[in-house]
Amino acid sequence: MSASAADHVYAIIPAGGVGSRLWPLSRAKEPKFLLDLTGSGHSLLRSTWDRIVPLIGSDHIMVVTGAAHRASVVSQLPDLDGDNLVLESEPRDSTAAICLAAALIARRDPDAIVASFPADHFIGDERAFREVVTEAAQVAATGRLVTIGITPTSPSTGFGYIRTDGILDPDGSLGLPKSARAVTSFVEKPKASVAREYVASGEYLWNAGMFVARAVDLMCWLRESEPELAAGIDRIADAWGTPAVYEEKAKTWPKLKKIAIDYAIAEPVAAAGQVAVIPGDFDWDDVGDFSAVARQVRKRNPGNLAILGEASVLSESSTGVLVSETDRLIAIIGVQDLVVVDTEDVLMITTSDHAQRVKEMVNMVRQTGNENLL
User: SS3 for 368?
Assistant: First the structure.
């Protein structure tokens, strides 16, 4: 990416969501993105920041997070400009978060290209990631919505998929990267049999929830698909930097429609034939449950039992993942694919096969009146 082009590229990091499948480690006061879930020594948020900074610099990164997490985010990202921290009084899903940031950036730089990256994902090859982002920005400059799709390594049922339809610029007449493909649709998490068909066809990529577009285009698409939501965001953005913003946010933000950007923008824009994808062949994971945590920990410390934390562990003929925030001795004998999460106030035990069901337990905890544990 040339220096002049990079001057107009900005990153948005929406840092929200509790990560309920990672309870009791991830909680409302200290959610998934603030935790080190890979054994790297850095939180997922900090790792996201570190891989973006070399591409565009810290002054072009905007973080959107809950007001309750302000102190933690500032502590973990000391180089974050205060003007680039957007605080939500309450979560309104990804469209509101990303589009408010895009609207603010567009008012600073009408030529801005914004790239949205979840705060809680793992990416292995950071150099390859930055190359893909650079190509995505080149395509976005032509007025398309660009997503970064991950080349599947297995027929996973835990991820959504992107259906592609050939090279976007096969003869090079548009001057676009050869990697860019046209997108026909976004597909929800499939059944195992369908996932196998997707991967075998070679036409599908995993949807990693990363989007790149001109900021003004993003807001235009939102005004077409969700005009009331767009109008509310515009009102807040117009008042930003003035005393009136506090009243406007208090009045407008809680009423904004809760909707994911996939539904509000990506799917309707794909139906109109305006979405492209750049395949990413790097190691990626959304670290969505404890099975994913085990995969990441084993990359650094191979073994049958993946251990995250400082616990003293005795393991005999056992496999799975153990995550501990205590210093007690934990002994595991003759159990397979076990998930043990040991915190000061909760001990949670399940198996790898049921790791996705931890979210159901969170609902049970809430129903029994133990919300203090969430």
Answer: coil
- Rounded to whole angstroms, the Cα distance separating 116 from 13 reads 6
Instruction: Enumerate residue ranges in the chain where pLDDT < 70.
Output: 1-6
Give the model's pLDDT for residue 205.
96
Nearest one of 328, 325, 292, 300 to 312, comparing CA atoms: 328
DSSP labels, 160-212: -EEEEEEESSTTSTT---TT-EEEEEEEPPPPHHHHHHHHHHT-EEEEEEEEE
CA distances, 367 to each of 24, 341, 345, 346, 371 (Å): 16, 21, 18, 16, 8
**Cα 147 to Cα 130: distance, rounded to the nearest angstrom:** 14
**Strand ranges for 266-304 from DSSP E:** 275-280, 284-285
Residues 147, 266: Cα–Cα separation, whole Å: 9
Q: Contact, 40 vs 48, CB < 8 A? A: no
Phi-psi region of 195 (alpha: psi -120 to 50; beta: other; left: phi over 0): alpha
Report CA dihedral (174, 176, 180, 183) to the nearest 10 degrees.
-40
Within 10 Å of residue 76's Cβ, how many Cβ atoms?
18
Q: How far apart are CA 101 and CA 164, in angstroms?
A: 28
pTM of the full structure: 0.93
According to the model, what pLDDT value does residue 92 have?
A: 94
Cis amide prior to 268 (ω within 30 degrees): no
| pLDDT tens-place string over residues 123-142 | 999 999 999 999 999 999 99
Q: What is the DSSP letter of 145?
A: E
Whether 118 contacts 129, CB under 8 Å:
no
Our CA angle for 45, 50, 54, nearest 5°, is 145
**Inter-residue contact 145 to 131 (CB < 8 Å):** no
pLDDT in tens, 285-313: 999 899 889 888 888 888 889 998 877 89
Longest dimension (CA), the chain: 65
Cβ atoms of 285 and 334 closer than 8 Å: no
- d(CA 41, CA 341) in angstroms, rounded, equals 19
